[in-house]
Amino acid sequence: MGFHVNESQFDAWLTEQQKTYDIYAPKCFAGGNTFSDVDCIRYGKVNSISKIVFDQKSEYSFKEVLTPISQTLFFFTEEQCKEADPPKKGAIIFLRSCDLHALKRLDDMYLHNGPADYYYKRIRDNIKIVLIGCKHSFESCFCVSMGTNISENYDMSINVADGVYELNCKDVTWNQFFLDLGASRHLVVPDQVHENKTVVKIPVNLTADVARSSMWEQYNKRCINCGRCNFVCPTCTCFTMQDLYYTENAKVGERRRVWASCMVDGFTDVAGGGSYRKKNGERMRFKVLHKVLDYKQRNGYHMCVGCGRCDDICPEYISFSHCVNKLGDAMKEVTK
Amino acid sequence: MVRNDYIPFSSEILEVIKHTDIEYTFRMAFRGDVKPGQFFEVSIPKYGEAPISVSGIGDGFVDLTIRRVGKVTNEVFEHYVGDRLLMRGPYGNGFDLENYKGKELIIIAGGTGVSPVRGVISYFAEHADERKDMTLIAGFKSVKDLLFKDDFPYWREKMNVILTLDSGEETTEHKIGLVTKYIPDLKLQDVSKAVAIVVGPPAMMRFSVKGLLERGFREENIWISHERKMCCGLGKCGHCKVNDTYICLDGPVFNYTKGKTLID
Fold first, then answer.
1. Are the Cβ atoms of A257 and B237 closer than 8 angstroms?
2. Predicted ipTM?
3. Are B179 and B168 contacting, i.e. CB atoms less than 8 angstroms apart?
4. What is the pLDDT of residues B27-73, one digit of tens each?
5. Which of A193, A203, A297, B103 stands the most exposed, by the fewest C-beta atoms within 10 Å?
6. CB-based contact (8 Å) between A276 and chain B?
7. Chain A residues touching B241 at Cβ < 8 A
C-alpha cells in the first residue's frame, strides 16, 4: 500500500517499531570525519526521522549491523566456552537500492559459501528493510552499470518529498498501523536512478590473465594499503579471529571476529613468515578482480554494487571505477 | 537451527612426539571422520587460533604436527601430555585415497609438507596391495630438521624411499640435494598412468611439478596441497581465497589442473 505521511506520523511508527526493533539509518556524526571539523555520515541507531540523513550518501555502509566491526563470538572461562548473547531486538535498516543488492552478497557469503554462519543468521533472521528511494545519483555512484539501481525485496520504501514522506509498504501489519493512523493513501513507487555520471564497463572477455598487465604497477606506489576501501565497501566481508583477555582476571576472556582487509599487511601471513601478495598493486588486483570477475565465476553475478564509497573514501584519490574501466585495455595488453 | 561452528571442543593431549627443537607431534584425543590433508583450527584462549593439518589418524586420536613459529604455536608448546587444547574441525577436502589406488604412486614432500601426506604414505605402506610401485621423495633442510624419523625404517621396507637433505653430509640414511634432483631418475613403468602428490613450500611445489611434467606425467594425475592462512575454515573470513577458490572449502588439496590456475 502507498501512503503519504508527515514527520509526526512517521515518528509514531518509529516509536511503535522500537518496541521490537532497533532502527538503523544513516545519520550525522558531527565532527566525526577523518578530517577535522567535518561530519561523518554513517549508520547508527535513530529514534526520529529527523535524525536520518537522506540528502547525502553514507560514507560507511549498513553492513556493520549484520557483521559488526568487532563481534564477540563466545566467552572463555577456565572450564567452558559460553556463547555470546544475540542482540535483544531485531533491526529495521534504512538503506538504498545498491546496499539492498549488497545484502544479497552478504547472504551468499555468510549463508551459502560453506556452512551457514550461526552469528550472521541469528541477526539476519530478524531484520526488516526500508528502502530509501534515490531521486538522483551521487557523483561517484555507478549502480546503473552494475544493475543494482532497482530493488523490489524491501518491506517498505520511503521517498522524501516536500514536507511529506511517501511510503510504499509491503508489510501487512505496518500497513494497518498507517491506516489506523489515518495516513492518506496514494500510489507510491520508490524513486529510482536510471542514469549515473559515472559509467563502468567490465570487459566481457575479462579473465584472470589480466593479472599479468602492467596496469597494476601504478598502485604499488599510489596505494598506501590503509584498507579504507574494504571497510566502507558494503560487500567486503573478511574478518580475522581475535582473542582478548580481561586484565582483572587473565583466565577469563573472549574470542571475537574483527573486520579484516585484503589491502592491509598481514592478511595472508602464514606460519613461519610466508605471505602472499606483498605489493600493493597485487592487492589492488586481488580486490578489483574479486569484485568484478572471480566472485561472479563462483556466484553467477558481480560482487560490486556500484555504490562508489571506495572512490569517495580513498585518501590517495584512487578510483575503483577508473580502475575497472582500464581493464579493457589491460586485456588487450595481455592478449597481444 | 544453524550449528555454531565457531565454538571449539576441548581435546586432551595423549602423547607428544618430539621431532626437532621446534617441531613436535601432538597426539590429540578425537573421534570422528577425518582424512589426511584435512586440518583443524587449534586454539588456546588468549593466544588465538591456528590451522594445523592432520599428520596422522588412529583409533581415538589425530596427530597434529606443529612447528613453533608463531603466537599460538609457541603457546601450544607450553602444553604437555594430559593438558588440553581447544580444537574445531576437521576442515577442507583432504586427500581422496581412491585417486591413487591401483596406480603407480610418487609422493614428493618437503619439510612440514610431509605432515598432510603422512596419512597417505602410512595407508599405502600398510596396504601395499592397493597400489602399484610407490616412491616417496622426502626433503628436509638439514639432519636436525628431520620429521617422522621413526616412520622412515618402516616406510623403507614397504616402498622406495629417497630421503634427502638440502645440506650436510651424505649417509646411508639420506642423500644430499633438493627433491627435484631425483625426479629425472625416477623409475616408472607407465608415466601416462602414474599419479603423484606434491606438498611443500610454494617454490618446491612449482619446480617439482615442472619436473614431473617434463617426465611426462599428465597434469590430471598430479595433486598438490596449498598452505594459506585459514582463519575460520568455513569459507567466510576470506584470508585463504585465491581467485574464485576458497582453499579451506575447495582445498587445500587440488588436482593440478585446478591448482595451476590459482594466482595469488
1. yes
2. 0.90
3. no
4. 999 999 999 999 999 999 888 999 999 999 999 999 999 999 888 99
5. A297
6. yes
7. 290
